[in-house]
Amino acid sequence: MESGSANRIGEYLRARRELVRPEDVGLPDLGRRRVPGLRREELALLAGISSDYYVRLEQGRDQHPSAQVLDALARALQLDDDATVYLHGLAHPPRRRRPAPRRPERVRPGLVQLIEGWHETPAIVQGRLGEVLASNALARALSPIYEPGVNALRAVFLDPAVRDLYGDDWERVAESVVAGARALAGPEVDDPQLAELVGELSIRSDHFRRLWARHDVRPRTGGGVRRLQHPQVGALELHYEKLAVTGSDGQTIVVYHADPGSASAQGLALLASIAAGEPATARGGSTPGAG
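Structure (tokenized):
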């Protein structure tokens, strides 16, 4: 992760500028460019600020632009609401505090009992950094990534079996988990465990390092769709919902389900019958950190 003295605003603006093509914002493409995306002067023009002032922002010589300037840059860069909030946070970070030592994350016994009773529904309890704290038998049959102690971010980039499981959907999953980690990090969060995880993956995975450098921001909330190529039951298209666990430090329950009557529902039912041979107890307990 970037150091505390890094030029955070400049790094972010440069990364996002390089992702915007001239034709995306109504500018003519005048041919070969030395760098991808917009030029500095083009972004300044779109945002209605002087090129000199924009250069000072990107070089870190001015790190406290006004809210109006930030909003103008966000519009020019076509940032969504989450990314715009993130940009404002870079310019006006919260006061840094010495982080308190974190205790091992523990799952409430009631949650473990709840998900272990869902024999036809894959479910896990996930920690704030993406580590699996507890899972039921069907979740573990669905993927080895749902074994307690496994960190989802690490597994997506370092476990070949996970890449095979997601198949053509792997790139979208990889982008999603990195954007979620960026949102968790925020502009000034001093989290040694997250820094260690990001540092490890930056060294071990070129793909992770490239995605992290994009500065995509997308909070890990709500739900979506996962498409899997399961080695036992074939293709599955599953919906997932993420439910925040109140009274915890960022824990979520993640539940998967298929459309009723679909081929995926039949495949999930078959997998449930296979998983029924495993003792129906949810493994869980505590983990010291990122898993």
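Residues 286-291 have pLDDT under 50 and may be disordered. The chain has two domains: 8-91, 107-287.
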